[in-house]
Predict the 3D structure of the following.
Amino acid sequence: MISTEVLFLKEIETKLLPKGATFSEQQNSVIFHNNTANIVAGPGSGKTTVLIAKCAMLLKENIGNSKGICLITHTNVAVDEIKSGLSKIGFNNIEYPNFLGTIQEFFNYFFGRKAFHIIFGDKNIRIMDDEEYRERFDHFFDRLKPNWYTNNNPNVKSKNPQLIINQDLTYDVISDANSTYREAFNDSIKHLLKFGIVTNKQCLELSAWYIKKHLSKIREALSNRFEYVLLDEAQDTNKFQYELLNSLFLDNIKFQRFGDPYQALYSIFDTKEDAWIPSEEVSYINKIEIAETSRFNENIANLVRNVCIEKYDSFRSVSSVNSFQPYFITYDDGLELKLKYKELISTLEEQSSEYKSSNKKDAILSAKHDDLMSLFEEYIVSNSKVKKSESGVKQIYSLILRIISKEIDLNLQQTEEKLNSLLENKKIIAKLIKDLITKDNIESTISSIILEIEKIKNDIIEPSKKEKIKEQLNSFKNEMESSRKNAIVEQEKEEFYIGTVHSVKGENHRSTLLVLNTVFSDWYGTYSYEILELLNNYLIGHYIDLENISNLQLKIETKNALKLAYVAFSRPTHLVAIGIHKDKLTEKLKEELIEFGWKEW
């Protein structure tokens, strides 16, 4: 007789997987594992789908129970994706005692807000993103800065302000701001705190203080509420967050961490260490691998194995995709590189209808924006507030939400909650947003938007502020139109995406070309390593364990180069290529590349 668990999993497979597909043995081992574990899921191994399936199984099992499931991820996009998957299975509302949200929401909801009210009293707490916070910071710093200070206001985040809570519940702020204006900088942060305005980092510091003060009681309360804790994209968790999560859940609740530790890019260009390293935890936390990829075949899987920061011999392809052998392209300048890449793509399209019919993009990547700007004259790091990844409707709605937020003095989340409660106003604003996008003459539309904001505020907006709002909306409309026209021009001019490796993390491509033109060095010129030099052995199949590299800086930069190559090489379904300047390619390296399976173009 088939168990109800197996029957439900078969139902999940019909909802989440392509017709006729089933979960693999490795995927099933994760879905049915019921203890603390590190789940190392390679690129294209179906990690998110497995996580959704596991969460659905647990939710089904816990129906009617007093304990729930806690699922923590890192972005709202990931939260929406998981909710969408659960909805397909029939779980439309994730309610108490369950929790599904970002890591920031988890700490803010359970600990940060409570700690804030203990220290700062009953005033409203407003947790702001970096851009919102920067605007408020500038308001105070402009009033407190020294008379001689004429530079741009300091970047708040880069000065690393820290909230220190004393035993008597008083507090202080320290920072890395220059001593000549540090007092004004720190006092500006204090003024914001007095008004209840905090960043997510400060909320995490408040959470840490609260957790440390009440750890044993908190652990007991959490174990009474949650049966399982599932952490998604564990490699993106910083050390501060990771240590706090471990203090709450390890040896207390079944705690499973999902992710790919070899894709931890956030630590590359600073001194931060990776927080989640499953290979260093195997003595006390079980490690389970999903090491079978369906994204590409062995031609690419072989490369990915060889540029991993740890030996990854278990990673293999189970894909029917006809990926090509990898190519290396020599070039003299950016124009030649693009032309050669375009010719290669056209040639391979003639050879493979599967490749030609793919609607995924072709990409050219490098490690840094500077590397791309030095190679392609037309490459510009966009400072535009118009985000290509979001629809025009969503972006204008976000802008209007920010305007309302300032007028009624609430943070964005609280403003959205208020707007959601005013259905009639929200419907009118939705129509006006549509008009703003579709109509050429938008003056009357903008006036109507301002009128609706006044209704929500229940007060008149000052004339000077009205003009500023009009200017913002007009500017955004013009910027959107300009962005749309530029996108059409770019599409006609370019047939592939150009960007950093960081910018494509989580994406799938048809083809990916990694340009090996990056130099890793410090400000003082004490060391300098070219990325080709660091990757040389790995590209020809001569794997060197990082632990066998005695020079510490060489070891660090080799690890960084490997992470970048691992992410870049694991994006495409069909083609991996590397670009090497013709002056950097020796005859010896050329022979070794060809011997390992690379083809020259």
